[in-house]
């Protein structure tokens, strides 16, 4: 199947001329920009059963029930459920044998007069693929990046049309559907940071792969999913939380990875005891760490890593931020609370290498200025030299002499802290060694990973497990 990249008007007209599709549009915030396309191209009477815009909060609550916030997933789902059910109740007897019903909804916060609000929105469509079929659903979250309200409205209208058209024409090709969301738009105007597809039309879809595709295609810089594999919208789950992140390849996750995060979490919580807030711990993989030597992404390998991380009970983040300072800037967009990064001592040494920041005009000083300006601390897990037996910690690391004063400054300011509790017996464990043991069918690798991870690898034959 090929994406023809039709104009929004051409897409809207094609939907209007499809005698099978019939439904309603409910939009809150940023005008009725989506349904306006279907009205103005002609033929709307064959597609639109109802258009509604419940702007007033009291009116909205009376129609859809109360929600935690007016621009949130819960409100969108309430809108979709009510509007879709009304279509079925009112119209199925009359035209149900020949009609595939749908309900489109969005709830949006576009740029206000003073330009002080977060500009984002939730859009979704619940639809039948054919008459009498069970409904399927697509939900997306967008960030609107234009500086003017009118431009944000325009972009919202276009992506809404793309969603409706994609649901009807590309539901059998989820990759193409996702890619088509930005037809006639650019990532400078709108960002899609979450897509969730569910229902009978998407039984074959793994939403974790869809999340990866968002990052891979450049529609978003970050994707998140929970320990049970559900797609998460980053801003909602990072909002007003302390955030602790461990970056790694996790191929597979080992006792070292778990011990590092658990040790850091204990120290991180103690450091922030005076300003309590919910804390979220995240295991993060960069796209750089997912790419192979051919610069392609092995989806099977990605799912294997996600499966074992989820088996260990952790929230997973995929980011397109190879540099830590860019990851921190992203996290601080959504939380003003404390941010912690935990890493091995060897990774800390790498962090102080100047060539890592050659693309920045201010070099390593600019990078560290960005990294540590947001309530950030690094929690360092020790490294044991297998040849000499030396245990390297924060106080005896071999940092480049040119960066010694900078390193000492960060230590004195407690921006870099040694993890006080760790299991020394785990230090000789390295994920590449464990992976080699698994692929070569060597005995003993099970003792190097958590029991639930070993069971997952064996049951699903992950990472080339053959026995």
From TrEMBL:
Alphabetized InterPro entries for the sequence: Rossmann-like_a/b/a_fold
Q: Which SUPFAM superfamilies match?
A: Nucleotidylyl transferase (SSF52374)
**Name assigned to this protein:** Nicotinate-nucleotide adenylyltransferase
Which species does this protein come from?
Answer: Methylophaga thalassica
